[in-house]
Fold this protein.
Amino acid sequence: MPTRDPFAPSPDDRFTFGLWTVGNPGADPFGGPTRPRYTPAQIVDLLGEVGGVYGVNFHDNDLIPIDATDAESKQIKKDFRAALRRNQIKVPMATTNLFSDPVFKDGAFTSNDAEVRAYAVQKTMKAMLLGKEFGAKTYVFWGGREGTESDATKDPVVAVQRFREAINYLCAFSRSEKLNYKFAFEAKPNEPRGHMYMATTGNYLAFIETLDHPEMCGVNPEFAHETMAGLNFVHHVAQALDAGKLFHIDLNDQEIGRYDQDFRFGSVNYKAAFFLCKLLTDYNYRGMKHFDSHAYRQADRGEVKAFAAGSMRSWKILEDKVARFNRDRTIQKLVRQINRSEKAAAAKLAKRFTKTNAKQLMALPIDKDKLAARKLPYETLDQLTMELLLGVR
Ligand code: GCO
Ligand code: MN
Ligand code: MN
């Protein structure tokens, strides 16, 4: 009897892809497409062939070209809906393309032109309705063109104010139309703009608290985005989790200091990928895991499928590594050893401020040299982690 593949994905894993990710035709700034452009329905069929996929997400114009006629749009939706049904694939997230058309050359919600800003809000309202037609629950905002090359061109405080005005408007629209969206903001430091305003997930966590409806807003951090800037992605996700704001996540990979590579998840920084998987597992994240990446330019249709299957498989393998880490006795003993007792008198006094606690803590003799001399076997712990990851443990 063939044994079940322990790393096979299932819809329960909540893995999603985008029409623009698996449908990416392989063009780059130096050359045209290397693969045919598939229709939305063909992309859904491809994901169905891969198997185990929960959902497919889209920008308004991934589904309906910006200049489509009503008749064309009707036909595309009909074909797409049929493909979703026959492959049992859902649409959990939708978003707006506010970056490709020349009208957005200086931004959408932050453009210096008030009519461009109005057009961006109008386009987003229409795209929110389109997403709802297919059952999307999360609405992602990625401000691809919200930034500058030269700060002579825009007042950066005004830009934040304009952004807030647009988001408050759209929150109110979602509420008044009973669309029930959760908004998820996606930061990125640069590309396509020289500098983007909301460069990190932390920028958005602070911004959200200034909105009219912070409760409906969270973040969609992307592995490659913080990594491009040389930052530790896992720490950004952790802060979002702590704030109860991790509404969605974009998984892919990226080498530090390079162009925006959008590599297959797990293909470069697999140690960081492991710690991300551990974080989401330990904190029981149940949201969507969206692969925002694309296959190498050399890939044909079969290789695009291999890319999609590989993305999910790597996550499942890392989940298995996390389980091993969490039940490895030697590793867990070290973890306990390095997290020293909370029961010590000083620790208890420093836990919660009261005037009495503070007074007692002030007076308490603490031997700092003794504390400094305590063992921290971090070399051993990290080496064991590496051996586990490398498959010899
Ligand atoms: C990028 C971004 C986008 C967004 C997408 C959804 O670097 O191009 O990651 O792929 O995720 O536009 O909002
Ligand atoms: Mn990206
Ligand atoms: Mn993304």
